[in-house]
Amino acid sequence: MPEVNKKILSAVLFAKTVHRDQVRKYTFEPYFVHLEEVARILERYRAPDEVVMAGYLHDTIEDTDTTREKLEQEFGSYVAHLVWEVTDQSIFLPEPRPNQKARKAIDRVHSASASYWGQSIKYADLISNTASIVQHDKDFAVVYLKEKGALLEVMKGGHPDLLVECMDIYQQALMEV
Q: What is the CATH number of the domain that holds 169?
């Protein structure tokens, strides 16, 4: 039996706890399913443990009351930094927030400046989300894919093979909507 990676297990348990009441849109399965899918994609590309941990935690700042400081305290500065790199910054804008187009532009600039592994986490997130959105909501998929296409245009600095997979899924999704 393989040895349990205690660092990754701690991120799994934390993510399960803070996302415990959340479900995925459309499928209503536990939100953790998405987080696990992102982490597993990263594992396929031999991402270091800290990156896999950030994969499990990538939505904690956006979708829970978890702060960057809390992640740093629990998992160290590198994991917290990776999660911060993939966190949409537009959520921190004061009310009234700009329109969707302006918010996505802010988030795109932030994602474009992310590190190799930060962008790789974002690719894995896009891979996981695209299939579900295209399958369950074709109308929203048109908007989503336009936004993701613009994001992929400025995010070329991650794992090259993961980027190829992400682009392939993006192109396939465009043909389905």
A: 1.10.3210.10
Question: What's the structural domain count of the chain?
Answer: 1
In angstroms, the CA 108 to CA 41 distance is 22
- Say what the pTM is: 0.95
Q: Which domain holds residue 166?
A: 6-176
Is 62 a known active-site residue?
yes
Of 29, 62, 168, 176, which is the active-site residue? Answer: 62
Task: Note if 74 is an active site residue.
Answer: no
How does DSSP assign 59-83, residue by residue?
A: THHHHSS--HHHHHHHH-HHHHHHH
Going by the DSSP 8-state scheme, the letter that residue 53 receives in this structure is H
Catalytic residue among 43, 49, 63, 72: 63
Looking at residue 1, its pLDDT comes to 47
Q: 49-107: per-residue pLDDT in tens?
A: 999 999 999 999 999 999 999 999 999 999 999 999 999 999 999 999 999 999 999 99
